[in-house]
């Protein structure tokens, strides 16, 4: 089959600016909705919503749900569901809390805040999450128990395994190194944030450039040069703007004083320091990049989407869909554990109710982000944006002073409305 | 080149032999002690009513179903086919009646599904796959343009050509076509008929499952007829008429036999 009569590549008649930029209209809609939401809250709260401080807090509050939402995309794309993520997070958090406050310091006699404590705790936690996820996947893939049932069972089991392990007590304070994953206790500072921001910008521009070169190499149509430049500017602006905002949030002076005291130094008069990028946000960004690469550029990702689109076709193409299910749920379990690191470090302890209702937030984030429950469609960035929208809505309402019951009513209504809008949109553009 | 007929006359080893194949589903014998074979460059039609067991028989060969008893020989060697990957490794390709396309993926992704071209770092090479896809579609269906859209956006004929491209791209030696023209218009049906002639000329053996006796008479060298899971008989197309085949399908009797 080495005939060389190739199909001619038809120049497409680009109709408008958006098409020339080859932007995802759906993504634009979500970003638009997010911006309107932010500006709206900002007006109502007299400018308190869009302050560096609030944006910083919003960001670190979103991380835990966003990490799990990116895994939930794969689960939902393969036509499954995971109702146990909040409970699994609790179990992983409990395992890690017990490892760092009981097992290592007392049972193994390493004492508190030993330098290896945090890494051992994290590894144990991640292994626990991955194994439990794999176990769920095995029951779903090989024993063919529906995912809804397996994870509904898991929801009860893991929530209460966590309770049993900790006797329902709050376990803390956690290891001091471990807590850098929480957000405020672990940021890069302004200088490193700028350096990282510049590196990220350079990498992003390189990716854009390489994808254009790859297309040209195969004589595929490319965007006009001006469109590439606009894209490059928007991406650079977004990355550096984000860094600038997080750098602009100064560490409160009392806290700064305590940090100097802890090192046995005296704080120089009038010193201010910005927080910069939290490490938890870097973890989220890393997860987003890795998950996106898996989704788009690996066989695993291709098989996940193919199986979601047509499980029979995937099976007939020689894809081991059972093993695939195990892999997808292992990834989900791993990400639950990673979220548990971030969530418990942020709270500085393990509490019995950690991760409660997270399963619903995570599913909602993925679905608002455009993951179709019928399978086959979904994006990682959509899910993360979905998580950000949910969190903004919730903390914005809290800031405005909306009563707690109304907050939940609004969130629930927004979820249903978002899915409806998505259905209408998909019908319009003729996609499935 | 020796024709399939001469090969059979010489007693050459067939490229595929399925011997005494039985498959049951929950106590019902879907396929009962059926034997068929196939020589290079030969088209063997499989005929029968819905539920006669022809699709089940052929899914044993393509690895989608497991047989309960019987054996499969490829070029005389006994082989184990327990999943679609095994079948593909013996150069057996299948065009399913349902086409087995992932609707949410584009043509190139479907063409290479399960056999992606990867770069040195193990990532899928979409550009290379699309370029290969354009080449093969240029031969099979020169009017095909929708390379960057999910196959759900394609017409029945276009989807069919993606499924056919997938079967012939990977140097198939043995091709199974399960009602390849069921969803097609007259023009596209003609295209498939021409393709079958081309593939035959390349020495590819084809099992063609079809309802349409006329199409079988036109395209096949031999026909095996099944009824209620059993093989009624295998006949040379040259020796029979449409009516003979019809009575095999409907009454389950071979030409020359008296009606029971």
From TrEMBL, chain A:
Q: Which Pfam families match?
A: BPD_transp_2
From the record, give the transmembrane residue ranges: 25-44, 56-77, 83-104, 116-134, 140-158, 178-209, 229-249, 270-295, 328-348, 360-384, 404-425
Annotated membrane topology is: Multi-pass membrane protein
Q: Main localization of the protein?
A: membrane
- Tell me the protein's name: Xylose transport system permease protein XylH
| GO cellular component terms attached to this protein's record | plasma membrane
Cite a single GO MF annotation: transmembrane transporter activity
Tell me if Cell inner membrane is a UniProt keyword of this record.
Answer: yes
Give the subcellular location: Cell membrane
Q: Which domain of life is it from?
A: Bacteria
In terms of InterPro entries, this protein maps to: ABC_transp_permease (IPR001851)
Keywords of the record, alphabetical order, are: Cell inner membrane, Cell membrane, Membrane, Sugar transport, Transmembrane, Transmembrane helix, Transport
Described by its record, this protein's role is as follows: Part of the binding-protein-dependent transport system for D-xylose. Probably responsible for the translocation of the substrate across the membrane.
Automatic annotation (TrEMBL), chain B:
Q: Read off the SUPFAM superfamilies from this record.
A: P-loop containing nucleoside triphosphate hydrolases
* GO annotation, cellular component aspect: plasma membrane
Q: Where in the cell is it found?
A: Cell membrane
Q: Which UniProt keywords apply?
A: ATP-binding, Cell membrane, Hydrolase, Membrane, Nucleotide-binding, Repeat, Sugar transport, Translocase, Transport
Its membrane topology, per UniProt? Answer: Peripheral membrane protein
Q: Does the keyword Membrane apply?
A: yes
Keyword rRNA processing attributed: no
**InterPro entries, A to Z:** AAA+_ATPase, ABC_carbohydrate_import_ATPase, ABC_transporter-like_ATP-bd, P-loop_NTPase
**GO MF terms held by the record:** ATP binding; ATP hydrolysis activity
| E.C. numbers | 3.6.3.17
Record domain ABC transporter: where: 16-253
- Domain of life per record: Bacteria
Q: Which CDD domains match?
A: ABC_Carb_Monos_I (cd03216)
Annotated PANTHER family? CARBOHYDRATE TRANSPORT ATP-BINDING PROTEIN MG119-RELATED, GALACTOFURANOSE TRANSPORTER ATP-BINDING PROTEIN YTFR
What this protein is called in its record is: Ribose import ATP-binding protein RbsA
Taxonomic source organism: Tritonibacter horizontis
């Amino acid at each position: 089959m080495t005939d060389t009569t190739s199909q001619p590549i038809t120049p497409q008649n680009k109709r408008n600016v958006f098409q020339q930029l080859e932007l995802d209209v759906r993504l634009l809609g979500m970003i638009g909705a997010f911006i309107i939401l932010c500006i709206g809250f900002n007006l109502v709260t007299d400018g308190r919503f869009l302050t560096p401080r609030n944006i910083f807090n919003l960001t670190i509050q979103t991380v835990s749900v966003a990490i799990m939402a990116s895994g939930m995309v794969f689960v939902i794309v393969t036509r499954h569901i995971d109702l146990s993520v909040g409970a699994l997070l609790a179990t992983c958090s409990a395992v890690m809390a017990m490892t760092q406050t009981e097992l290592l310091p007392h049972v193994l006699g390493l004492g508190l805040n030993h330098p290896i404590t945090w890494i051992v705790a994290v590894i144990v936690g991640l292994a626990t999450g991955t194994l439990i996820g794999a176990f769920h996947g095995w029951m779903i893939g090989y024993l063919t128990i529906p995912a809804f049932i397996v994870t509904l069972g898991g929801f009860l089991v893991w929530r209460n395994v966590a309770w049993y392990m900790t006797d329902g007590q709050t376990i803390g304070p956690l290891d001091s190194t471990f807590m850098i994953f929480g957000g405020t206790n672990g940021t890069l500072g302004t200088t490193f944030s700028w350096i990282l921001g510049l590196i990220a910008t350079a990498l992003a521009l390189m990716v854009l450039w390489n994808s254009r070169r790859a297309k040209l190499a195969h004589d595929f149509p490319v965007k006009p040069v001006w469109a590439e430049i606009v894209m490059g500017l928007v991406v650079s602006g977004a990355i550096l703007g984000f860094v600038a905002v997080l750098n602009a949030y100064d560490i409160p002076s009392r806290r700064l004083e305590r940090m100097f005291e802890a090192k046995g130094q005296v704080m120089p008069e009038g010193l201010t320091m910005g927080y910069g990028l939290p490490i938890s946000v870097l973890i989220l960004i890393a997860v987003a990049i890795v998950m996106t690469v898996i989704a788009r550029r690996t066989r695993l990702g291709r098989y996940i989407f193919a199986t979601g689109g047509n499980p029979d076709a995937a099976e007939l193409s020689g894809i081991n869909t059972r093993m695939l299910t195990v892999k997808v749920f292992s990834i989900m379990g791993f990400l639950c554990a990673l979220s548990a690191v971030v969530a418990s470090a942020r709270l500085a302890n393990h509490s019995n109710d950690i991760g409660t209702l997270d399963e619903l937030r995570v599913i909602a984030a993925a679905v608002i982000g455009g993951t179709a429950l019928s399978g086959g469609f979904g994006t990682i960035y959509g899910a993360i944006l979905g998580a950000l929208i949910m969190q903004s809505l919730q903390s914005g309402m809290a800031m405005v002073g909306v009563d707690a019951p109304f907050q939940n009513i609004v969130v629930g209504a927004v979820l249903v409305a978002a899915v409806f809008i998505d259905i209408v949109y998909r019908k319009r553009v003729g996609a499935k | 080149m020796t024709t399939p007929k001469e090969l059979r006359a010489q007693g050459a080893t067939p490229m595929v032999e399925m011997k005494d194949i039985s498959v049951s589903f929950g106590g019902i014998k879907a396929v009962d002690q059926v034997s068929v074979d196939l020589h290079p460059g030969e088209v063997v039609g499989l005929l029968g009513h819905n539920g006669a067991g022809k699709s089940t028989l052929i899914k044993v060969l393509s690895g989608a179903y497991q047989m309960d008893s019987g054996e499969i020989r490829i070029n005389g060697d006994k082989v184990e086919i327990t999943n679609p990957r095994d079948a593909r490794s013996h150069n057996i390709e299948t065009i399913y009646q349902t086409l087995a396309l992932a609707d949410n993926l584009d043509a190139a992704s479907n063409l290479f599904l399960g056999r992606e071209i990867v770069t040195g770092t193990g990532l899928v090479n979409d550009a290379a796959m699309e370029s290969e896809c354009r080449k093969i579609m240029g031969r099979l269906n020169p009017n095909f343009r929708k390379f960057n859209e999910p196959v759900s956006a394609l017409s029945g004929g276009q989807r069919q050509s993606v499924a056919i491209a997938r079967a012939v791209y990977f140097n198939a030696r043995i091709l199974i076509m399960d009602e390849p023209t069921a969803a097609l218009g007259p023009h596209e049906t003609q295209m498939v008929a021409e393709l079958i002639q081309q593939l035959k000329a390349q020495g590819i053996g084809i099992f063609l499952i079809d309802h349409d006796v006329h199409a079988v008479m036109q395209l096949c060298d031999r026909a095996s007829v099944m009824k209620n899971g059993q093989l009624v008989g295998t006949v040379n197309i040259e020796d029979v008429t449409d009516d003979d085949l019809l009575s095999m399908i409907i009454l389950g009797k071979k030409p020359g036999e008296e009606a029971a």
